[in-house]
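Pasting as-is:
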Amino acid sequence: MIIMELFKGLLNYSEYLKENPFHKNLGVDLEDYGSLDKKIIRDTYSSVDPENKVPFSEEMDDLIRLHYLTTSRKVTTILEIGVGKSTLVFDHALEQNKLKHGDFVNKNLRRSNPFECHSIDNNKDWIEVSKSNNPSMKNVTFYHCPCNVTTFNARICTLYDNLPNICPDLIYLDAPDQFSPIGNVRGISTNHPDRLPMSADILTFEHFLLPGTLIVVDGRTANARFLKANLQRNWDYHHSEEYDQHFFELKEKPLGIYNQRQIEFCLGSGWK
């Protein structure tokens, strides 16, 4: 099962955080926070409140897993769709990867954006909040990208106007919300509390992605099912109800010598 393989080395959240104390960048007091795997129960309409201007509190177990995926897979380039506390975590993990693996990657792999997180959002305010939370971030580039209601294969969805021109080996999908995309198609939009976010951006550049690429979808189950129904290549998929996350890993033969070299270095010679 993909979930067991992805997290096979993550045996203890507390021990992992001792070795990788990114919580300090978030300003999290672990004694005040309590159990690292606690589940935060929110009000029924809190996640679909268009007037909300306050970032959700951190969920440390989610953030630890994202950090672990970045370091254990020796990720070089991240596309983050939706800024937030995850942005700081990616910055911290990429800095560790750069220190440990920078020389090898620069000399042996064809990675033109090594140890970079490219974070897009259609909300300028959220971008500014993310920047102000940790102005010392070294590895993140922010993009303000308007988002519109449109169609993909005659299915109503949303697409950002612009995307960074990169080749990520990790994609984290956590935006847009359903209220901010602009416009409608025949009167239908995502701007309704009973609607669901439906990003199709990944589908438009799927054919450019390299074998070994990992997509993590945070919540957004309807969106993940939409992706699963429309992705065309050989993706291993797993929905973790415990984590409320969806994982897609592109399992194909390497495209050539450089992709082969990246897979062997980042994922191991036994990766299939």
